[in-house]
Design a protein that fits this description.
heterodimer; A: alpha+beta; Ubiquitin-like (UB roll); 2 domains; B: 705 residues; Aldehyde Oxidoreductase, domain 4; 28 strands; binds FE2/S2 (inorganic) cluster
Chain lengths: 172, 705
């Protein structure tokens, strides 16, 4: 297997890498760049622990190869803090205890940040009664939109509270 | 030291102290101690048969694949201690060898191990290993093994397998009102989000394993036993654990193989089981068949109370799920009979999963109580109140504290139980049928041994160290609170360090003993330090042992679950709209993290009632559901609104801090409340868990459109 040169832009920083083309984006982050905040729960697109934000949209980083992401803007959990302060979503997860073991947490938080953007852009979900109107972010909407992120500790109701808090402009 | 002192931090709903690390991705889990270049990568090759022998392993191609450093099989694995011994008092300290023989003991059994420079290379080479096996016929079906199942003598918590009070058979035969029902619960998997993983490093004769484990001292001993080396030469580090739920009580071949691999290739080796491998290579919760026989007089007092349980363990193991443990403590009845029978099958190992025994024992018992209430024409809350007891009904000791009745009464008021219509299928909301259900919760409390060290640093900060773990339960946080209160320091001046066998030994996290045990040790250490400060003492150790729990009393946490279920009239889909859990669990050490434990347990209750099940393929002896797409755990959209209430319970006869275990109480009875709500909604009695829509359709068809 011949390596490929690829430049990944992660949290605003460009990294030139010489990569085995079989390396997933998840493993490139964790094993090649040492950014282990993004977690591997299943490596097969079924748990959401590996969720990162690519060009503004959340994806499962275990389901995509790193070499496909040259030029993309990749945001991981390590990139959410600003000036050493927690992102409001990170702070809300702590405040509402939206985590226990913490293993699903980076994925949940990246997912939640992207969810608010999706909602703002007017995207409907399965839980949206009328897809022609701008959906209201009910608890049911949040729960539906977060159901790709499994939390076996089952912090779900606290996760919903945390997201609601941020969506409503909660304190930091 | 009073300046800046937080008023009695124990109990406050403080944010968890490791929260910042976890929300920023900076908490380090086992696989994350070295990245590419710093460690080589291991991949396990599993067997594709359940029982038999490995005849030959062809490693030629794999060995010459790019980046490969080692291909290990039965032909070149180093000598190790055989698995076991099976009767070791601490079963989590057994030897866990890998590739030490040609025997295949269950489907997915490790038969080869590849180490390579990168994960991709190890994976690719693993696919090139060709394994030839001779398959033997195996026994995989629990039900058909029932008639030949053995009396195991003891169940896993050490209690006798059988218990009997009075004359059950005679009382049951003559009871004016009775029910007899067979309940079945399926195989379940703990499915922690972090797969079992280890990174092993040798420095001379010293082995360090960074592993994902609930225990520290036991795997240290077990690895030493496996490799026949002194325990002092093994260090286990497990600072952050991505969930365990019982599955990380034993250690597994990931630790063994990482250690062997690291020794041979002369550098750190790390490996994580793949998600599908978890389903066979680690433990699961046994399926069960439970015969419930309840007899009562016309006043609703139980006269005969019987539970027979059939459970599975691996052919070579002896684990017996303590299914009837809850029944032995929950209700008064003069004539009682509980029995466990154990079927040894050629399946992977069964062992603990959140609230072993009680989670599934109560799923059956508390549904059977609902059936009895029906047969009597009694309100289910009332029936439970009538059978409450202040005395442990089988061991004739008073409960140190027991507030089941208060939990039921307060819960009923808060939940709006009085609005429940007893006649099933009476309430509709459009196409949805609405029902309410209740169930009691009980979970026994034990104290184990632990030692903690407390040290006052020169800058006035306190460091607390013990080989305890925080599996997400909030241990770092509650121990910080306990130490801060004992030393009268602000919590931000206390640092708790866990998860390292270099610290004083503890029993670790499991069986709901973790918080009471470790916090009692921390309290003892801090008290000693505090008392010695004037004499110049700066460091002290304190311990707790099982004897610190007064055994003239019975110890358990209690509670009551209430659930509202909506069942779709046409599809049989069940939605849990809301649940309330009221718990009497002694002194609560942190109101926020304790609530999180409860909502976690209640959510597991929803999962066990509605979706969680694994199936055995009877042809191959494998579990059919080998990933998270086919083994369903509850996700966010499965959970309605959850309400948790703790009773203010002082337990003067309990653990030194008066706390009780809370990690498991939340699941105990939770699923039964949901199943009972489904009955109230539809009239369907589900006795075969989980209550998937197909099991409801027949009843739904009998209802008016
Ligand atoms: S690790 Fe990517 S979805 Fe599970
Ligand atoms: S916090 Fe443990 S899996 Fe979500």
């Amino acid at each position: 297997m011949h390596n490929e040169n690829v430049a990944l832009t992660v949290n605003g920083r460009r990294h030139a890498l010489d990569l085995d083309p079989r390396v997933t984006l998840l493993d490139a982050l964790r094993e090649n760049l040492g950014m282990t905040g993004t977690k591997k729960g299943c490596d097969q697109g079924q748990c959401g622990a590996c969720t990162v934000i690519v060009n503004g949209q959340r994806i499962n980083s275990c389901l995509t190869l790193a070499v496909m992401h040259a030029g993309d803007e990749i945001t991981t959990i390590e990139g959410l803090e600003e000036d050493g302060n927690l992102h409001p979503m990170q702070a809300a997860f702590v405040r509402h205890d939206g985590l226990q073991c913490g293993y699903c947490t980076p994925g949940q938080i990246c997912s939640a940040v992207a969810l608010l953007a999706e909602h703002k852009a007017g995207w409907p979900s399965y839980a949206t009664a009328d897809v022609a109107t701008a959906p209201v972010l009910t608890d049911g909407e949040i729960a539906e939109r977060m159901s790709g992120n499994v939390c076996r500790c089952s912090a779900y109701s606290n996760i919903v509270s945390a997201i609601r808090d941020v969506a409503e402009g909660g304190r930091i | 030291m009073a300046e800046g002192k937080l008023a009695d931090p124990i109990g406050l709903p403080l944010d968890r102290v490791d929260g910042q690390l976890k929300v920023t991705g900076r908490a380090t889990y086992a696989f994350e101690y070295a990245t590419q270049g710093g460690a080589a990568y291991g991949v396990i090759v599993p067997s594709a048969i359940a029982k038999g022998r490995v005849v030959a392993v062809d490693v030629q191609e794999a060995q010459h694949a790019p980046g490969v450093l080692l291909v290990l099989t039965k032909d070149n694995a180093p000598p190790q201690t055989p698995w076991g011994p099976v009767d070791l008092p601490d079963r989590f300290a057994r030897a866990e060898p890998a590739l030490d023989s040609d025997e295949v003991r269950y489907f997915g059994f490790p038969v080869a191990f590849v180490v390579a420079e990168t994960f991709e290379e190890a994976n690719a080479a693993a696919a090139l290993v060709s394994v030839r096996c001779d398959s033997l016929p195996g026994q995989y079906d629990l039900h058909s093994a029932g008639p030949t199942a053995e009396d195991p003598g003891h169940i896993s918590d050490g209690a006798p397998a059988n218990s009997s009070v009075g004359d059950f058979e005679a009382a049951f035969a003559t009871a004016p009102v009775k029910i007899e029902a067979l309940y079945t619960t399926p195989y379940q998997n703990q499915a922690p989000m972090e797969p079992h993983a280890t990174m092993a490093v040798w420095e001379g004769q010293m082995l360090t394993v960074h592993t994902s484990a609930q225990l520290t001292t036991s795997p240290q001993e077990g690895l030493a036993r496996t490799f026949n080396i002194p325990k002092e030469n093994v260090r286990v580090v497990t600072r952050y654990i991505g969930g365990g739920f019982g599955s990380k009580l034993p250690f597994y071949v990931d630790a063994t193989l990482a250690a062997i691999g690291a020794r041979i290739v002369g550098r750190p080796v790390k490996l994580a089981m793949t998600r599908p491998q978890l389903f066979h290579m680690t433990t699961h919760r046994t399926a069960s068949e439970q015969r419930l026989r309840l007899g009562a007089d016309r006043d609703g007092r139980l006269t005969a109370y019987g539970q027979d349980a059939l459970v599975q363990c691996a052919r070579f193991d002896n684990y017996t799920e303590p299914v009837c443990g809850a029944a032995r403590m929950l209700y008064a009845a003069p004539n009682r009979l509980t029995r466990h029978r154990l079927a040894k099958l050629d399946l992977p190992r069964s062992d603990s999963m959140r609230a072993p025994g009680d989670a599934i024992g109560l799923l059956a018992l508390e549904c059977a109580m609902d059936e009895l209430a029906d047969a009597l024409g009694f309100d289910p809350v009332d029936l439970r109140l009538r059978n409450d007891t202040e005395i442990d009904p089988e061991r004739d000791r008073p409960f140190a504290s027991r507030h089941l009745a208060e939990a039921l009464r307060l819960g009923a008021a808060r939940f709006g139980w009085d609005k429940r219509i007893a006649k099933p299928a009476s309430v509709r909301d459009g196409r949805w049928l609405i029902g309410l259900g209740v169930a009691s919760a009980v979970r026994a409390d034990v104290l184990r041994s632990a030692t903690a060290r407390a040290r006052l640093e020169r800058d006035g900060r306190l460091t607390v160290e013990l080989a305890m773990t925080d599996i997400g339960t909030g241990t770092y946080t509650i121990l910080t609170q306990v130490a801060a209160e004992a030393m009268e320091l602000p919590v931000d001046r206390v640092t708790v360090r866990l998860g390292d066998t270099r610290f004083p030994p503890t029993a670790g996290s499991g069986g709901s003993f973790g918080a009471a045990t470790s916090s009692s040790a921390v309290l003892a250490a801090c008290r000693k330090l505090n008392a010695g400060l004037a004499l110049g003492l700066t460091e002290a150790e304190g311990s707790v042992t099982p004897a610190d729990l007064d055994d003239t009393y019975a110890h358990a946490g209690f509670g009551a679950h209430f659930a509202e279920a909506a069942v779709h009239r046409d599809t049989g889909e069940v939605r849990v709209r809301r649940m309330l859990g009221v718990f009497a669990a002694g002194r609560i050490l942190n109101a926020k993290t304790a609530r999180s434990q409860m909502i976690g347990g209640m959510t597991w209750g929803i999962g066990s009632a509605l979706i969680e099940e694994n199936h055995v393929d009877p042809r191959y002896g494998s579990f059919v559901n080998q990933d998270l797409a086919s083994y369903h755990v509850a996700v966010n959209a499965d959970v309605g609104s959850l309400d948790v209430m703790f009773l203010d319970e002082a337990d003067p006869h309990g653990s030194p801090l008066g706390s009780k275990g809370i990690g498991e109480l939340g699941i105990c009875g939770a699923g039964a409340a949901v199943i009972n709500a489904i009955h109230n909604a539809t009239g369907a009695r589900i006795r075969d868990m989980p209550a998937t829509p197909d099991k409801l359709l027949a009843t739904l068809e009998t209802l008016d459109a």
